[in-house]
Write a structure and sequence with these properties.
The complex is a heterodimer. Chain A is mainly beta. Chain A contains no helices and twelve strands. In chain A, the strands form three sheets. In chain A, strands 2, 5, 6, 10, 11 and 12 form a six-stranded mixed β-sheet that branches. In chain A, strands 3-9-8-7 form a four-stranded antiparallel β-sheet, with no helix packed on it. A two-stranded antiparallel ribbon of chain A has the order 1-4. In chain A, a hairpin with a 6-residue loop joins strand 5 and strand 6. Chain B is mainly β. Chain B has no helices and eleven strands. The chains are: A mainly beta, B mainly beta.
Chain lengths: 114, 115
């Protein structure tokens, strides 16, 4: 069975700073997808970034980038120039190839301080 | 706009009654939808896989007879919480995949409060 571990329950950083959220996972699969989802107080799940395991290049989306280390099964999210609107719960998630079932980590609550 | 819609967003029901939550894919067909449950300050826990035209597949520990899932069409899955109890109060959220864009969409979620 796949597991996703987020070791930081809560983090706080000042606005404009850079913050890194950690995520490790365990799987015997070779083909899979990894995601970071943001859940603001509205509870709507928002896809932040997605990484295909077969791609060595780290995914980036504007201020958001990941450090994907397949051998180490690590998938951290870096938020640059953090903004107040980044305050939310962030979930790391795993999905096997050809399977739409997503397994979520326990989440990291991120506070961006003014 | 939202491509997966849940209804109702909020519902309060009395103990012992049943309540139905709908999950609709608005502009794509979804042969598979997923139902998650989220307790306050916790992660999303997968409850079941809803399969169009066949029985749902439940995760270990989820009561099939309490959480009835029906996927009667390619755009609609329903979750019925039967004989609801206060401990069933939670946030329920569904997801569906649009294969045209290979994108997973989540519904807005439904808050259930059992009193």
């Amino acid at each position: 069975a796949q597991t996703v571990t987020q070791s930081q329950p809560e983090m706080s950083v000042q606005e404009a700073e850079t913050v890194t959220l950690s995520c490790t996972y365990d799987t015997s699969e070779n083909n899979y997808y990894l995601f970071w989802y943001k859940q603001p107080p509205s509870r709507q799940m928002i896809l932040v970034i997605r990484q295909e395991a077969y791609k060595q290049q780290n995914a980036t989306e504007n201020r958001f980038s990941v450090n994907f280390q397949k051998a180490a099964k690590s998938f951290s999210l870096k938020i640059s120039d953090s903004q107040l609107g980044d305050t939310a719960m962030y979930f790391c998630a795993f999905m096997k190839h050809r399977d739409d079932k997503i397994i979520f980590g326990k989440g990291t609550r991120l506070h961006i301080l003014p | 706009g939202a491509v997966v819609s849940q209804h109702p967003s909020w519902v309060i029901c009395k103990s012992g009654t049943s309540v139905k939550i709908e999950c609709r894919s608005l502009d794509f067909q979804a042969t598979t939808m997923f139902w998650y449950r989220q307790f306050p300050k916790q992660s999303l826990m997968l409850m079941a896989t809803s399969n169009e035209g066949s029985k749902a597949t439940y995760e270990q520990g989820v009561e099939k007879d309490k959480f009835l899932i029906n996927h009667a069409s390619l755009t609609l899955s329903t979750l019925t919480v039967t004989s609801a109890h206060p401990e069933d109060s939670s946030f329920y959220i569904c997801s569906a995949t649009s294969y045209s864009g290979n994108t997973i969409y989540f519904g807005e979620g439904s808050w259930l409060t059992v009193v």
